[in-house]
Design brief:
By secondary structure, the protein is an alpha+beta fold. The chain is 39% helix and 18% strand. It binds adenosine-5'-diphosphate and magnesium ion (2 copies). The site of one magnesium ion (MG) has 4 residues, from loops.
Amino acid sequence: GKQLGNYRLIRLLGEGAFARVYLGEHIYLGTQAAIKVLKMEAANGSMDGFYIEARNIARLIHPHIVRVLDFGVEGTTPFLVLDYASSGTLRQRHPNGTPVPLAVVVSYIKQIAEALQYAHDEKLIHRDIKPENILLGRRNEVLLSDFGIALLMQTVQAQNIQDVAGTLPYMAPEQIQGQPRQASDQYSLGIMAYEWLTGYRPFYGSITEVVAQQLSIAPSSLREKVPTLPEAVEQVVFTALAKDYNRRFGSIQAFATALEQASRL
Ligand code: ADP
Ligand code: MG
Ligand code: MG
């Protein structure tokens, strides 16, 4: 089979807009790893973003962030070597339309918020929080991944960035308008909480329709879909989904704590 650096590629694990990820086996050590290879057609001639991703994620050491083991270049193909998350993604674990029990949602949000709070303290904005980018480890622990479009806050501030990137159904209003901030990650996590609790995202439709809904339509009641849900839980999710980022929780950690407390009411 194909080989990249010291890794023999075994099979395709998954694919996103920017990369293909393979299960690899180290030819000398026999250890397994996930090999993330940039899609040249998506790179638009520049591999800068891929190097930035590698450097951003490599300095994040956290029990709920996927670990970078190495980086290499084979010919002209750069690749990232990551810890292999053997239990797949949260999207694969919970396909559309199947609600997840509240206690499980609270546990996911807590773990993701811990990882994101750490990334935020390191002055990063992830910008692409969605179930496809959250992996599950061997003991079913949650692992935040895919820092491919993460931004350093100082870059946002210095360049007054007008960079619209992300995944529309999970994107905060200010991110859609080219002004991402850390509270935008909280909004994306709020969309995920809504999706897991009810089985469906709050907003569907064409690009124009979803943009309009993200910007100015309040999400419909979670309790209409799941009557057993505590009212306080619905309020917490709605706060994370506030259109005005000033009305969200002060930090992503505060969102997770509030959700946990509301789930006990
Ligand atoms: P992209 O930047 O193109 O979205 P991702 O980093 O999200 O690429 O990886 C694409 C897919 O590959 C993921 O959704 C997941 O299915 C799989 N994947 C990525 N990293 C790993 C990993 N460390 N272990 C197992 N599967 C992974
Ligand atoms: Mg991805
Ligand atoms: Mg990516």
